[in-house]
Design goal:
It contains eleven helices and ten strands. By secondary structure, it is α+β, with helices and mostly antiparallel strands. Strands 2-1-3 form a three-stranded antiparallel β-sheet, with no helix packed on it. The radius of gyration is 27 Å and the shape is globular.
Length: about 325
């Protein structure tokens, strides 16, 4: 007993404050009513009134973005790789060897190009629709009891915007209806096309900036090992994680804080500049620009690109080495 007193006194002298040893056990069953009451009080503060106009603006801009990209795809070709998510806005694709193949087996291969669609540029990101933000956690056996809607729509819904409002309602929540051709756009002049491109680019900027503001107020989670997104404070318990490496966890997600790229993926693509060869080759990939797909699509339709993207576009950069094999030039013809 005397030895324990000496150890405690030495701890006070060395650390400057007494060491507290808690021997009492906490009864979580008694704390549960208090925790639930605090959650209910916290839910009364949502939605935040100041963020309601931001949520409505995001929904309106999202509608303009979907229809704008659908219209531009009627006039500009879009190519998508058959075996990976790579896309390219152009007639022939490119020869840059960045394809990782089916199930990540074949890496650094030339892409096999097919015709792309709207979902290749505006990647759909869905989440469970909650009745309220602080409802009980969705369990695995309840995963079919909740609808799946776009994560941006769910975020705006929880932020106070009503997607069923006629002024905010989109013709398509999941992009499927907008994949076809937009009526009335068969005969657009270059000026009209440039105007649509400018509005589309502005809408894309508005959606990303608005979502970034909403993420400062409303909690959104993303899985660390897959692209699953949940709009809410604690994630869900549906075992849907498809990363085979972590199958020992029975498909449970590992949640972390989400950012704007998780809800609105930018989909970065290679961009051909005027000083580049007609067909981008693998030897010049360090020289070419890399920009978001919406930005490249709108710029090729005549939109004015903001100056903040000049670094990504490498506007004044050097051109890559010319591959003589694909330009029809041989060494003998130059001698």
């Amino acid at each position: 007993m005397e030895g324990l007193r000496k150890m405690a006194w030495s701890g006070v002298l060395l650390c400057g404050h007494p060491r507290r040893l808690y021997a009492t056990k906490v009864d979580l069953r008694k704390l549960r009513p208090m925790i639930l009451k605090r959650i209910e009080k916290r839910a009364q503060g949502y939605p935040v009134r100041a963020m309601v106009p931001v949520a409505k603006e995001v929904l309106r801009a999202r509608n303009v973005l979907i229809h704008g990209v659908s219209t531009l795809l009627n006039f500009l070709p879009l190519m998508a790789c058959k075996f990976c998510p790579e896309i390219y806005i152009g007639e022939q694709g490119h020869l840059i060897q960045t394809c990782w193949g089916y199930k990540h087996r074949a890496k650094n291969r030339v892409h096999e190009w097919v015709k792309g669609s709207l979902n290749d540029i505006l990647v759909p990101v869905e989440s469970f629709h909650l009745n309220n933000m602080f409802q009980s956690v969705i369990r695995h056996n309840e995963r079919f009891d909740f609808d799946r809607i776009p994560a941006v729509v769910e975020l705006c819904w929880q932020a106070g915007a009503d997607p069923h409002d006629e002024n905010l309602k989109s013709s398509s929540w999941n992009f499927e209806a907008a994949n076809g051709s937009v009526p009335g756009t068969e005969s657009l002049s270059p000026n009209d096309l440039a105007s649509i491109a400018n509005k589309t680019l502005t809408a894309w900027e508005t959606v990303r900036s608005g979502v970034e503001k909403l993420l400062l107020v409303y909690p959104v989670k993303v899985c660390k090992y897959c692209s699953e997104v949940h709009v809410g404070p604690s994630g869900h318990k549906a075992r849907l994680c498809g990363v085979f490496k972590y199958e020992s966890w029975k498909g449970a997600h590992f949640w972390m804080k989400a950012n704007v790229d998780n809800l609105v993926p930018p989909k970065i693509v290679w961009r051909r500049r005027p000083q580049d060869p007609p067909l981008l080759v693998n030897e010049g990939k360090d020289f070419y620009g890399r920009v978001p797909a919406v930005l490249d699509l709108c710029s090729k339709a005549g939109a004015m690109v903001p100056a903040k993207y000049n670094c990504m576009m490498k506007v004044q950069g050097l051109s890559g080495p010319v591959n003589n094999q694909f330009c029809g030039i041989t060494r003998e013809s130059n001698l």
